[in-house]
DNA sequence: ACAAGTCAGTTGGAAAATCCAACTGACTCG
DNA sequence: CGAGTCAGTTGGATTTTCCAACTGACTTGT
């Protein structure tokens, strides 16, 4: 064993789940996006509501901005002040937050009181995930591998 | 102002998104669950496919087990060896992984080739999230706050 | 006018989490 | 018997995070 350049010692899967977690999986990132989804856009409030320390939060917001998930919007010159807003990409993180909230409210019940979420229709969170193509529900196990994809410059929109 | 016990200096939101991230938001946790969703159940393979270091992975699997998301199943005595399997709770993480994969394949496209995913019908991942109650689609912004919930002992199932 | 407050950060140092490669122990296989 | 498999464990380096205090440019209250 211990061959110098052994390619059979396979590298970690490069997949879109891993790529998504590169951006959204860092600590505080999803909570910051939650805040913006709920209409909170200012640094102090985001820091307070998430519990992230200010220095870390600064870094996260910069990363999310550089990855096109949020944008920094100046709302005051003269003390230069900025708000953080979701881009289209950031707004589309919502299904992840919703799935997470639904899973958590199903399986993470304990004694501590927590804010729950609802659909805007007023009903408790009970989302159903359907395949847009065949209309069937995504059941556990219905996720399978597709082909390798590498489409640089084929972004769906360059609006941000 | 600056009243001694000022409740307006609010604590971080205690919500189900935050609670879910407590369990699923730690590094490598979702990637380990991805592996099990794809049928990989053994320690070495999970370590290889995720890229997690073995000591950290050990810790993650223990946490996930203690939170009821996975279970450790002995498949050999005499060298005591265990496999990791999703519980019902763990299997239901699938919508989160699917939403993440779909978001990522939409917005994280770059030059590096990545494995994509499909629905078992063979179509590319294009999930639609519907409210089970009203049937309407969850659009960005349709997530709103519900009441505070604290339902200890009201678990939907005690099968694991 | 002057003190206090707001706001979006930055700073420095401590604490915690992660990384890494090597090692262990109980086997199986050729 | 030696090599390989497998599920970890160990020790030490590295990275990330935490925390509280501080800054600078204002605004607001008295």
Counting helices, strands and paired strands, the structural category of chain A is alpha+beta
Highest CATH level, the class of the domain at 16-92 in chain A: Mainly Alpha
CATH topology of the domain at 16-92 in chain A: Arc Repressor Mutant, subunit A
Order of helices and strands of chain A: HHHHEEHHEEE
Shape of chain A: globular
How many distinct beta strands of chain A?
Answer: 5
Biggest interface pair, residues each?
A-B, 93 and 93 residues
Integer-rounded radius of gyration of chain A: 19 Å
Spatial strand arrangement across the major sheet of chain A: 1-2
Key structural traits:
alpha+beta; 160 residues; DNA-binding; 5 strands; homodimer; Arc Repressor Mutant, subunit A
